[in-house]
Fold DUF6503 family protein.
Amino acid sequence: MKKIILLLCISIFTLACQEEKKETPNKKSVETTKKEPKKESTPEVKFAKSIERSHQISNFKKQEMVQFNLDLSFGEEKMKAKITMLTNSSKIKVEKSDGSILIYDGEKVSLFPKENNYEKARFDMFTWAYFFSLPFKLTDPGTQWEELQERKIDDISYDTAKLTFAEKTGDAPDDWYIVYADQNTKLLKAAAYIVTLGEDFATAEENPHAIVYNNYFSVKQVAFAKEWTFYNWSEEKGVYGEPIGNGTVSNVNFTKRNKDFFTAPTRSIEIKK
């Protein structure tokens, strides 16, 4: 009889323990199955993405390399060059009409021949390629958006937002842009900007400029602006005054690279700043 009572007690205790385990599942297993909520795009990021879509960013990124001619003048001829870049901007080559060649191989900037070195070489290496590819770089890693609002150019309203960059993004992370988009087509209309490369931030902020894009055309359904016009810019006046510079883009084509295309020739010099 005692044995029967003892076995009955053991059975009841075992069932109670099993029931407790069912009611208190393993905490760790519950936590690992939780899904992080998806972060919704801000209105500013949606604005940036609408510009990229209007320029057909997906078609642009399907291509390996893009090439174009650029004629720039600021009172006098600034640069005449053929610029070639990978569509992800990881390598760039600028072949100038004076025979100079600038190459960014993904790690360093080189100039050939070394005796043609000049003060703004690194600026020329990146700036004009960036202005050309701006509609396709608005949501790159490190981009930050704020201040969505309307602004006007010649009494026409445009949607705008401010683009800044996270630390250690690109060659000049302290730069900022006020990006303008056409309210109907969503094409990039203009970008106010400061240049901090080679200058301190306070000095750069005293002298912002703007590039205005006009006369769009398409290559493989991707939209590019043929005409660039440069102006002074301020928060109070926006784009104002007479043009201070002009650029013409021509002969845009997509191509594939040769193996050594972005290899610096011998007798090149590295441009560090």
